[in-house]
Amino acid sequence: MARWSEYDTDEERLPEGMQRIGYDADTQTYTFRDVDGAIWESASGNRYGQLRRVNDTTPPSYGEDDESSPTQPLTYAGPEESGDGTSWRQEMMPLLNWFLLVGLFLLVVIWFISRGSKGSTEVVRSCDDDAAPYKIKAGDTCWAVAEAKSVSLDALLENNEGLDCDKLSVGETICVPTA
């Protein structure tokens, strides 16, 4: 069973006095308010976890020589201004799927091209006067051809230099000695 279920409440998951007050569907962030009235935001896509403070409701201290008025609104410094933005890896993540699909497509194309070129390396044999051509059929082996033509396997292999009995292909022509 999972450690947390969907029936857990915010009181069980959040620090004491913290309340969830909103959700932004565009950025997929939850907004929370703590006991002091400060606003906190969750990471994008996470309901709970590490929270970061968005604003602080504590009143600023004003000195006697300070010209600013206490009625100035508090401004939120966005990720671009505060340097707390997302990393380049998170920004480039949607392109990962595209590059994977393109790479997979290229691998399949290269595989088909290389596979097609392997089938065209057929050896054309010209038989001597003392040998007859034989076209390989499905299920033929060197041993079966030698037995059917009453020839020794060694004589068959001598007449066909470079013949690989493990890789006989249908339609290939070999030379079978007649005498």
TrEMBL record:
Residues 1-21, 50-85 are annotated as: Disordered. The chain crosses the membrane at residues 95-113. Coiled coil: none annotated. Keywords: Membrane, Transmembrane, Transmembrane helix. The keyword Transmembrane applies. It comes from the Eukaryota. Residues 132-176 form the LysM domain. InterPro entries: LysM, LysM_dom_sf. SMART domains: LysM. This is LysM domain-containing protein. The lineage of its organism: Eukaryota, Fungi, Dikarya, Ascomycota, Pezizomycotina.
